[in-house]
Design goal:
The complex is a heterodimer of chains A (about 325) and B (about 290). Chain A is mostly helical. Helix content of chain A is about 75%, strand content about 0%. In chain A, helix 5 (about 90-125) crosses helix 8 and helix 11 (about 270-280) runs antiparallel to helix 12. Chain A is globular, with a radius of gyration of 24 Å. Chain B has ten helices and no strands. The chains are: A mainly alpha (about 325), B mainly alpha (about 290). At the A-B interface, helix 1, helix 7, helix 10, helix 11 and helix 12 of A face helix 4, helix 5, helix 8, helix 9 and helix 10 of B.
Chain lengths: ~325, ~290
């Protein structure tokens, strides 16, 4: 187990190094000069001397390999550089933004897991009944309706028409729990639909697969109620593939949260990225994309490892 | 019930055959019809549209549906039906082009990796793994903002995102097929590498790839309209569904129809492609049925 864990972490670290390298070089290969941006762009007509001064100040006049080595060594120490626009350290701003995105993602993924697994088990039990077509069509509808359709509809219903909830913005915990929660409801609701649908579909098919196995017949044969068979036997066996899907959902949730943050003007890391992109703020862009990849890789690693913990039949060496 | 069916069976054979045919093929035919309708709308957009999708008429801003503007007009007084028809062109073009490009490139890379083995395999598959580490939309946003959001760039970026899944699938399928006896037989019979790839391996790994392709079509429409929604899709003046929703949602307190129509359109299209993908999978790969 330990050596398995060590190997998996090693592979993950290697992948992240590859990702970091790709991000670093793609930014330098793409057109656009950071020095121009700092000096106000082409319209400001910066002089060559000024450009040169900024470049040497940022270390951009060094050979690319030297820049790469220095960037990487700062990165390993957790130094993400400074924003080209505000001059503030990226790390501090990003950690605040990241927590706000987590405010959206954590409730969404939890709700999606609970609703999706429950719904999937119900759908599996309802197989062959009148409800079956409805319950198997529901998830399909859920991931066919995009976030950017759900979000405006929610805003229209609950804030423009009914004036129940704020249409956008963010309230900090310090503004009071009610304020915080009222700003959270609509974005989370918009974000939750797609992962719930995927989880439900996966749970249904995974549970159906288990239901056809012998041990279920045995459990029924010894007189257990079907609710108990579902909960104690099927759920525990069916949950593993669902876990993988939930892990992969994190990637999809990023897509959802980019759009959600943009619709609801939620000042998380994705909005930070969109702003940085329009300003060509390279250090910020690099850091956000890298952080998102770290989260993505870490979650999937966690899912793989939790397999071993949850399923005693799986032994890793 | 049973006896009555039996009694009428002599008369109703064609009807019953039709019913059976319908039951079996409805899952394929229904979404295929919807897709065909949308494709028709896209193809005949200049003839279907009563107006130019770009023509602005301030006098009809937020006009309700009427005989002059069948679906109403948007916040600039543009005809919504015309915008939807031309937007269908963009969505379907991007989806078809990116999916087929990704399918061809991914399949080629995956089969070559599996077939050649060694450092080549390692290189191709590790790059595919690394690309899969990026949350896809971030990679798309990242590349498009630097390269600019032309139609071609959007197609290329989305294709890039979908190469790794195709490469992985083609790689794993080729690995299983490569050891099959008919491949050995073909090699003994004197076939060279390219001939084996083309004649023996490719036809036998096509089914899962085709399923992947049909599912990718729907996902790509979702991705493209999401990018358009954020203002990173194919640039104006060409209308696109995502941008219609993005722009009109700012004026929802004045009129909600300009958001509703493209929302319905994009959801229906994605739903149709997803249903079609499921049906294709069930038809081609019975082992995956109901999964």
């Amino acid at each position: 187990m330990t050596s398995y864990l060590a190997r998996r972490i090693g592979i993950a670290a290697l992948l992240l190094w590859l990702v970091a390298t790709v991000i670093f070089f793609s930014i330098y290969l793409l057109p656009g000069d950071p020095a121009f941006i700092i000096l106000g762009g082409l319209e400001a007509h910066p002089t060559d001397e000024a450009l040169q001064a900024v470049r040497s100040q940022l270390g951009l006049d060094r050979p690319l390999v030297v820049q790469y080595a220095s960037w990487l060594s700062h990165l390993t120490r957790g130094d993400l550089g400074r924003s080209l626009i505000t001059g503030r350290p990226v790390r501090r701003d990003l950690s605040i933004r990241f927590l706000r995105t987590a405010d959206l993602m954590v409730p969404s993924i939890s709700i999606a897991a609970i609703l999706g697994v429950t719904g999937g088990l119900l759908a599996a039990r309802a197989r062959g009944t009148i409800l079956d077509p409805l319950l198997s069509a529901l998830p399909l509808l859920g991931f066919s309706v995009p976030v950017f359709v759900v979000a405006p509809i929610l805003v229209y219903l609950f804030s423009i028409s009914l004036h129940l909830l704020p249409s956008s913005g963010y309230a900090d915990w310090s503004d009071g729990a009610a304020q915080f929660a009222s700003h959270l409801v609509l974005p989370v609701a918009a974000l939750v639909a797609a992962p719930t649908a995927t989880t439900m579909r996966m749970t249904r098919s995974s549970a159906l697969e288990q239901l056809s196995l012998d041990y279920v017949r045995t459990a029924r044969g010894k007189g257990l109620s079907s609710a108990r068979v579902m909960r104690r036997h099927v759920l525990r066996n069916a949950v593993l593939p669902v876990l993988t899907v939930l892990g992969l959902q994190i990637g999809g949730m990023f897509a959802g949260s980019v759009i959600t943050e943009s619709v609801f003007n939620w000042p998380g890391m994705n909005l930070f990225l969109l702003q940085a992109i329009s300003q060509r703020d390279y250090p910020v862009i690099q850091s956000v994309v890298l952080l998102a990849s770290v989260v993505f890789v870490a979650v999937n690693l966690l899912v793989d490892v939790s397999y071993a913990v949850l399923d005693p039949r799986i032994k890793y060496s | 019930m049973l006896s009555s069916t039996r009694a009428s069976s002599t008369v109703n054979v064609p009807a019953r055959r039709l019913a059976r045919f319908r039951r079996r093929h409805l899952r394929l035919a229904a979404p295929a019809t919807v897709v065909a309708l949308i494709a028709g709308l896209a193809l005949f957009a200049p003839w279907v549209s009563p107006y130019s999708p770009e023509s602005i008429d301030p006098t009809v801003r937020f006009a309700p549906p009427s005989h002059t503007h069948v679906l109403g007009a948007d916040e600039f007084g543009r005809d919504i039906l015309s915008e939807l028809a031309f937007g269908a062109r963009i969505s379907l073009l991007v989806s078809a082009a990116s999916a087929s490009l990704a399918g061809v490139v991914g399949t080629a890379l995956g089969t070559i990796a599996a077939f050649s083995g060694g450092p080549m395999e390692l290189l191709i598959m590790r790059i595919a793994d690394a690309l899969l580490c990026f949350p896809p939309i971030l990679l798309a946003i990242f590349v498009i903002t630097f390269l600019g959001s032309s139609l071609l760039n959007v197609i290329l970026v989305i294709a890039l995102l979908y190469v790794p899944p195709f490469a992985r699938l083609a790689h794993s399928s080729t690995l299983t097929v490569r050891e099959a006896e008919y491949v050995t037989a073909s090699r003994v019979a004197g076939s060279g590498g390219t001939r084996i790839l083309r004649r023996d391996i490719l036809p036998n790994i096509m089914a899962p790839l085709f399923v992947q392709l049909s599912l990718a079509l729907g996902h790509i429409i979702l991705l493209e309209s999401g990018l358009s929604f954020l203002g990173l899709g194919p640039p104006p003046p060409v209308p696109s569904w995502g941008r219609m929703i993005g722009q009109s949602s700012r004026f929802m307190s004045l009129g909600v129809l300009p958001v509703v129509w493209p929302a319905v359109m994009v959801s229906t299209t994605i739903l149709a492609f997803n249903l079609l993908g499921d049906a294709v999978r069930d038809a081609l790969d019975p082992r995956l049925r109901g999964a």
